[in-house]
Amino acid sequence: MKIYVAIAFISLVGCVSAQCNIPPQYWCDSLSVAQKCGVESACREFLNAEAAEPVNIELYFESLCPGCRQFITTQLYPTWMSLKESGIMAASMVPYGNAKEVQLSSGLWNYTCQHGAEECVGNLIENCIIHYSEDKFDTYFPILYCMEDASDPIKAAEMCVKKSDLDWDQIHTCSKGEQGNHLMHKSAMKTEALDPAHKYVPWIVANGKHTEGMQQEAQGNLLKFVCDTYTGAKPKECQSGIKFKQIVSFRE
Ligand SMILES: *[C@@H]1O[C@H](CO)[C@@H](O)[C@H](O)[C@H]1NC(C)=O
């Protein structure tokens, strides 16, 4: 669309440079071609939007941690809602957090969770939801948000899954059995492979990196952080970053 706008503009102005011996449909293919053909400024925004990768946010968390629930409900959810259309943020969640695992003689894993056995139940359900959503954030996040926003995430799980296209019986069976046990072990390995190692939850990794500074920015105002980090042309939703209040972040 933008190419045609640029072309229409140029044909109106009628001042295509002599060095531009390329058909108009290729003028926005690269900045050097755009420069030769005198359409640099019109193509720059288009090229940026094409070239920039979405900001990749990974969240390491556990189902009953208050700071995780606060981050999910007051930052990740509204930011995802705002930026969904623009596609400038990619996200994923790893439900495990500060849990511990010990392998049993059966080959399965025995988990111990920070907020007790209930939290392990929540983590298992969430790992199964992610699996049956084929790891698609846009599919599983509304369900995990629904759980984390409820007064009791584990009691709410059935209702939250039933509001989605997933099958609660399948999720429930998964979470109680070997499949859930294996899925949670995958999350454990992912969490344990973090570099630097995680020291608390919620633990945020952006574009594969974690620093104390970026954690504070992302946890305090995720929309602003993603907009600031994104290297392409900023979508209009980035103008509304000030609407989100800086929150006092907590962690454990
Ligand atoms: C799993 O770990 C808990 C706490 O460490 C322990 O009480 C329990 O007996 C273990 N379960 C198995 C099956 O080993």
Automatic annotation (TrEMBL):
InterPro entries: Interferon-induced_GILT. Its main location: secreted. GO terms for molecular function: oxidoreductase activity, acting on a sulfur group of donors; oxidoreductase activity, acting on a sulfur group of donors, disulfide as acceptor. Keywords: Glycoprotein, Secreted, Signal. Residues 1-18 form the signal peptide. It is found in: Secreted. PROSITE patterns: PROKAR_LIPOPROTEIN. It holds the Pfam family GILT. Gene3D superfamilies: Glutaredoxin (3.40.30.10). GO terms for cellular component: extracellular region; lysosome. Dimer; disulfide-linked. Belongs to the GILT family. Lysosomal thiol reductase that can reduce protein disulfide bonds. May facilitate the complete unfolding of proteins destined for lysosomal degradation. Plays an important role in antigen processing. Facilitates the generation of MHC class II-restricted epitodes from disulfide bond-containing antigen by the endocytic reduction of disulfide bonds. Also facilitates MHC class I-restricted recognition of exogenous antigens containing disulfide bonds by CD8+ T-cells or crosspresentation. This is Uncharacterized protein. It comes from Ciona intestinalis. The lineage of its organism: Eukaryota, Metazoa, Chordata, Tunicata, Ascidiacea.
